Amino acid sequence: MAEVTEQQIIEALSRVHDPDKKADIVSLGMISGLVVKNGHVAFAIEVEAARGPHLEPLRKQAEKAVHDLSGVVSVSAVLTAERDTQGGPKGGHGHGHGHAKGADAPLLPHVKAIIAVASGKGGVGKSTTAVNLALALSRSGLSVGLFDADIFGPSMPRMLGITGDPVSPDGQTMLPMENYGIKCMSMGFLVPEDSPIVWRGPMVMGAIEQLLRDVHWGELDVMVIDMPPGTGDTQLTITQRLPLTGAVIVSTPQDIALLDATKGLNMFRKVDVPVLGIIENMSYYICPKCGDEAHIFGHGGAKAEAARLSTEFLGEVPLDIAIRQTSDAGEPIVVSKPNGPHAKVYMEIAAKIWDKVQAIQGHGRKGPRIVME
Ligand SMILES: Nc1ncnc2c1ncn2[C@@H]1O[C@H](COP(=O)(O)OP(=O)(O)O)[C@@H](O)[C@H]1O
Ligand SMILES: [Mg+2]
After folding, report:
1. pTM to 2 decimals?
2. Where residue 84 sits, what CATH number does that domain have?
């Protein structure tokens, strides 16, 4: 099958009409960031912020138009809008909070993309997902950093099997820790695991800033952030302070039912951070004895919910003891069983996420805002 060309894609898109304007989306100049690679297509559709909520059908229509072309394996279209405020480099801040001098300098200027992995509540497998996605992105050839923003319950030292203290060659900045080819920083490297940390909000923010600013991350294609659980002020501040490219919501079938996933999603939408999609974790149970699948909580809930919330369903990860055991042992399943079915699931989800990130970045201008996605 011949590979699809950009020309063919543009042609297909020029048959898609903007419902509010009397023209097609190509001649209106709405398409940007077109990326075509081995039949995988990603692009952004630029719209005015106010129209975003009504344009999900247009996005779907554009995806379908491209999908119908021969040689197309996957299509990922995102709706983007310019941020309306100043938006410095990467446009990650400037959402109404005060601009304290110095403290507002952009963090992570050498990191090309930042993806937050979040959830409405704790214990849903956020850290497990974050570490496996980071490793999957690294296996795809990207330089990856993993930032553990869970100051009170850091998981990354254990999950990546890293012990010891970070070194500071110049006495000012620290080098990140490293394992399996990814760089990592976590409060867990700096305080003993069983020390109860009782901090107030501003101190937490100080710690986070320091871990980002004073760590020599170097050039990275992508940083994955394991967000703290829930949707409180700290989370909100992180989303405002960091130039996030997008967020991924992890949820279990139960919290999809209880609408906890919605809370996580709304937190990002509130601050104009693109939500790249939902991952359903512990989606179904795999019996360790017979390998049978049991859909204890029903099936398809997350998919339906994602559609209802106008975001993409990125995939489902089963509840399998092997996933827990490997990350408890400091050898997450993507690296310890690289050819197994679970690694494959994480690799596929990572590829989808990366497609979307590229569409957002290809959008050209810094700090695009996804309205619906
Ligand atoms: N898909 C899965 N299958 C089996 N166990 C899982 C899965 N995802 C997470 N776990 C386990 O559930 C517990 C909570 O996961 P964790 O990633 O720490 O959640 P969170 O970061 O959201 O608090 C951990 O013991 C982890 O090993
Ligand atoms: Mg966690």
Report:
1. 0.74
2. 3.30.300.130
